Amino acid sequence: MNLDKKTTFKILLIIFSAILFLVVISNISVVLQYAEKILAVLSPIIIGLCFAFILNLPLKLFENRCFARLNKKGGKKWLRAKRPVCLLLSVLLLFAIIALLLVIIIPQFLEALENFAVSLPGYMDALDEKLSDVITKFTGKTDEERFRINWENISAMLIKFVHSTDTDNAMEMTMDIISGTVKSIFNIILGFVISIYVLASKEKLAAQFKKLLYSLFKKEKAESFISVLSISNYSFSRFIVGQCTEAVLIGTLCGIGMIIFGMPYVPIVSCLIAITALIPVFGAFIGTAIGAFMILLVSPVKAIWFVVYIIILQQLETNIIYPKVVGKSVGLPGLWVLLSVTIGGGFFGAFGMLVSVPICSVLYTLIRAWVKRRLQTKNIDYDTLTRTDNSGSKDETNPQD
What we know:
Blueprint: H1 5-26, H2 28-66, H3 68-73, H4 75-139, H5 151-164, H6 167-200, H7 202-216, H8 219-260, H9 266-276, H10 284-296, H11 300-330, H12 334-377, H13 382-386
Helix pairs in contact: 2-4, 2-6, 7-8, 8-9, 8-11, 8-12, 9-10, 10-11, 11-12
């Protein structure tokens, strides 16, 4: 059988890919070590791209909405100054939000910590009494003989354990923590600087990337790849906007409920619930445990009511707010939002919950476009199939049509 060059190349490529796959599988530990080193080197760039993606949202808002009139009447001077001014405003907005959260959280956190320190002996004594009563009930010992926890002995044992550890190992552990912290701070600062450079010349970088794609691939493949990137950018951007909107709603509803029930630490607990709500669907439960513990130090009864209120609020968020707000923002039906979060969280934990919705939105959009093209080749109208009755109403699984 005669083989042309194209077929021979495909066969060799398949053989090479199989050999490479076997080599990688047989040396997976070495490959993971090198991958970890590569990620460590590229981490400032990755952080910078994440910062750039987030800052690009308020940047577009300032450029296209807030200064829309200046774009038409500002002249050449404004066109040159527009990007630096809007970029500076975006950075200031980000720092203002962080500073506001810190101003709200730090004083309340210090107050909660002080209350914890004051209330701890009383809670320990009450726990000691309860445990002693239980042991007395089941063992039949008198009050003088009943079991008591000696917290001083426990503290002395902990101190002895700390001092008994190897000094060299302790110093090595301390240096690792310090070096890791310094490296993380350096990566964040460097990543922030990279994001500023990326946003300052994003049009130029995008044009260069397109030229590279068209030079490496055929026109159809390059355009398809650019289309996928465009859809991904839209989905992730809308997801972040929807997620932040949903977090603000949950935090506000939590604060209103806490004020109505007269609960303490309203600002810090509401902010905590809002921040943890950024993890889709299940995130608010993470903040619930911390918030309930803080309220427990002041009033155990109010802590129980807080947990009940958050459970009700979480059901409202899971079934109504999140599918409507986030699902609508990314063009994804509520059912698929719940399924994507469940599957993503099951496989990849909190990170999977966070990115599963925009990824599912991208796949949903691509599959829907592919189905439309396939139906067109069969002379079948896509919109006709989405109608649920003769009145022309459309299926909820296709909100954008």
